[in-house]
Amino acid sequence: MSASAEMPYFIKPSLNLDTEAKKAAYEQAVVAIDANLEGETDRILKMATINSVLKTYLPYYYWAGFYVVKNGRLSVGPYQGTLGCLHIEFGRGVCGRAAREQKTQLVGDVHALAQGSEHIACDPNSASEIVVPVLDGKGELIAVYDVDSTQINSFDALDQFYLEKIMERHFRREALD
Question: What is the pTM of this model?
Fold first, then answer.
């Protein structure tokens, strides 16, 4: 895939938040997500809603989306942002590593990674990334949630805490209720 470094006119560059502002934004987003998804069981609707709400509340989210497990690899699902990679093999890039290890991946500077193996550059404007595995009620991997920022070091343990909590609540725990 060939990508231009020019920022698309419809996407704003990321704006990092300090810890307190980030926590407040996540708290508001969690309330909005929970209210909108109460009683919802359709995975695609959940994914689309989570993307929309998080991208609305968190100004450092440049690209946010789900890669769903399909035919033994990750395929792009609901997302917001520039064009995403269509398919990612398990183990390739940050998303593939998160899928293979079923462990959240935090990357402060994606350009420091080996391109093509440790990181797949779907959009050269991305500078940092977090990828969270999404498990169903049986503990099986159904997707990964990928968020990119145009700023380095946008993501930290606070992002990991809230994103893991959201994924647990709406994909794993709700299925067990």
Answer: 0.89
CA dihedral 79, 80, 83, 85 (to 10 degrees): -30
CA atoms within 13 A on the CB side of 14: 24
Cα 83-51-169 angle, rounded to 5 deg: 140
pLDDT tens column, 38-75: 999 999 999 999 999 999 999 999 999 999 999 999 99
Give the C-alpha distances (Å, rounded to integers) separating 74 from 10, 130, 136, 146, 177: 26, 16, 16, 11, 27
Whether 114 and 122 have beta carbons less than 8 Å apart is answered as: no
Tokens of 149: 């920022």
Residue pair 158/23 in contact (Cβ under 8 Å)? The answer is yes
